[in-house]
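Field: COMPLEX_INPUT
Field: COMPONENT_COUNT = two
Field: RESIDUE_TOTAL = 609
Field: MODE = joint
Values follow.
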Amino acid sequence: MTFILRNLWRRKGRTFLTVFGIVVGIFALTVLGAMTARLNQQVNGMKGLIAGKISVTAPGTSMLRMQHSKVLSLDTARQIEKVPGVLSASGLITVQLKEGAGMSQPQMLVGYEVGSGKGLLANVGIAKGRELKAGDTGKAVIGSQLATDLDAKVGDKVTLKGKQFEVVGIMDATLGTADTWAFVPYSDVLPIFLAENPFFKAENFASSISVLPKPGVNIELLAETIGNTVPDIKVISPAEAEKQISQMTTIFKAIILGIAFIALFVGGLSIINTMVMAVSERTREIGLKKAIGARVRTILAEYLAEAAMIGFVAGVVGMLLGLVAISMLNRATHNSNITIFAASTTVIVGPVIFATALGTLAGLFPALRAARLNPVDSLKED
Amino acid sequence: MSIVTTKDLKKTYRVGETTINAVNGIDLDIEPGEFLAIVGPSGSGKTTLLHLLGCLDVPTSGTVTIDGRETARMSSGALSDIRRERLGFVFQEFNLLPVMSAAENVELPLRYLKVKPAERRRRALVALEKVGLSQRAANRPTQLSGGEQQRVAIARALVTEPALVLADEPTGELDTANTERLMDLVSSLNSETGQTFAIVTHDPQVAARTRRIVTMRDGKIDSDEPI
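Field: COMPLEX_OUTPUT
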C-alpha cells in the first residue's frame, strides 16, 4: 500500500495529470448525477399524485402542462361517475400563483370539487391539520414547500391571488411538484380563474378531471372503459402518466450516461497510458522482483492496485469537488427556493466506485504486460 | 548432495538467420559451501549459464537439477517458487527498488515468502547486520554509495537463507577499493557461514578471491580448477 503511493509519488507530475483528467470527469458525473437525483425525487413525488387515479383531460392537452387550452365540462365528470367501477370524478381548475424560475417548481392554485371525493389528493398524506371536506369555502390545504415559502401554519390566513384562505392542512413533503401547490375548493378558484381569463366565457368547466376507482377495480381496464363510454375526452391511466414522466427523465439519464461514457473513455485511456509508461520505466524492477521469486499474480496485483489507486483517488477528489460545487450552487439559489441538486448515496458512492473500477479495468492491460515479462529480458533492459 | 547439477546443458538463440549456441553442452556440479567464479571473455556464455542455473531462463536441451529436482519441464510458477525459496541473486546494477528503504528492499523476498511483518523486519535487520549496514536500514538507495547499495543487494540475497547465491558481475560498477571490500565480505560469509556463492566475473582480482574457477569459452567449459 505505502509502496503503491510511493511509486505514484515518484512521478508526481504524471500522476497528478492523470488523476486530474479523471477528476474532471468524475466532477461532471457527480454534479449531473446530483441533478438527476433531484429530478428523480421530483418524479417520485409526482408519482404520488398520479398513482391510483385516472386523469381525464380534453383531447389535445398535455397532462404535464396543466394549461387551459381546452377544457372539459363538469357534466363530463358527472357522466364519468356513472361508469361502473368509478368511485368519484372530481373536476379541477388550476391557476398559476408564481412562475417557476429555472428548475424550480411553479406555485399552483388548484381548485377541485371537494364534494366529489379527494381528487388529486387521494394518495398524498396530510402532515398537519386535515383534508378539505364538502362545504368548505375559503379553506386551503397547502404543499410543504409552499407552507415554508408563505411561512404559514395550520390555522393561519394566507392570501392567494388576492383572496384570503385559511390553511386547514399541510401536506406531507413529496419532494415533487405538489409541494408548491395549494389545494382549495373548486368554487373558490372559479372566480379567480375567470378574472384572470376575461375572454373565457364558460361556466361549469374543469381543466381536468381526476377519477378514482372503487376498491378492487382494475384501474387500467377502468381507464379504457371510460375512454370508450364517454365521448371527447383524453384518458390518462396511471401507467400512461408514468410513461410520460419517464420520457421526460430519459433525456437527462442519457446525458448522464454520455458524460459517464466520456469520463470512462478519456480517463481509461489516460490510466492505460500512465500505467504503460510506469511498466516500461520499471521493466528492470519487474525483472528483479521476478528473479527473487515474485509470482505472476503478485506483479499483476501490484500494478492493478496502482491503477485502481489512481482511479480511487481521482474518484474521491472529483466527488468531493462535485459536492462542494453542489452545496455552493444550492446555497446560491436557496433564496429563490430552487433546489437543483440532491446528494443521494448513489451520487456520493457511485462515482468513487465507478472511478476505482475504471482504474482497475484500465490497469489490466499494462499489468498483464508487466506480469508476463520474461525475467531475463527485463533485467537486460535499460 | 549437490545443490545444482547440469547435464549436457545447451541454450541456443536464433538471431535472424544465425543460430548462437550461447551455452553448448555444460556439465557442472556445485556442492554446498562452494565459492566459485565463472570467468571467460564476453560472449563466452557465462551470464547465460548463470541465468540457467538460477531458473531465470529455460534450457534448449539438457537438464538443470536443483536440490534433486529437475527443472527443465517446470512451469514458470514452479520456477519462481524455486527462485524464491532456494536461490538468491545479486546483479551488476544492484537493482534496488528506489521507493523502498534499505531494510524494505531486504525484506522484499520475505514478503514474497509471506513472512509476517515483524519477523520480516527482524530478519532484514540481521541480514543488514551481516553486511555491516544496520545503521543505514532506513536510508533509500539514492542515499547510499554504490558499494553500500551492493551490500544491501547481498543482504537481500541472503535474507531467505538460500542454498545458493548467484551473482552476475557484482563488482562491475564498483571501484577497486569497494570491490576489495565487497569480496572481503563475500569470502567471509562463505567461510564463516558456509554460504554457497557462484559469481560471474571478468575481473581476475575477483576470481582470485574465490576457491574454484570455471573458465568458459564459446559456450563450453574450458577449465575448472580449484585454487
